[in-house]
């Protein structure tokens, strides 16, 4: 059985929380972009936008879809 160095044990223990925090920091901007695409313009341009959709619209997606034809 091999002995585990204390620095190796710390790095193995810290890996999961650091990976979770990094994943959260990478997912939040994508979530904000996705939510913004479904929000009405007045909700997007508020000084403190909501983190969740309060008013939902598909107009942005419809405009992009129709512009491709």
Automatic annotation (TrEMBL):
Presence of the UniProt keyword Transmembrane helix in the record: yes
GO cellular component terms, A-Z: membrane
Main location: membrane
Record membrane topology: Multi-pass membrane protein
Membrane-crossing segments per the record: 12-40
UniProt-annotated location(s): Membrane
Keywords, comma-separated and alphabetical: Membrane, Transmembrane, Transmembrane helix
Name by which UniProt lists this protein: Uncharacterized protein
Species of provenance: Thermoanaerobacter kivui
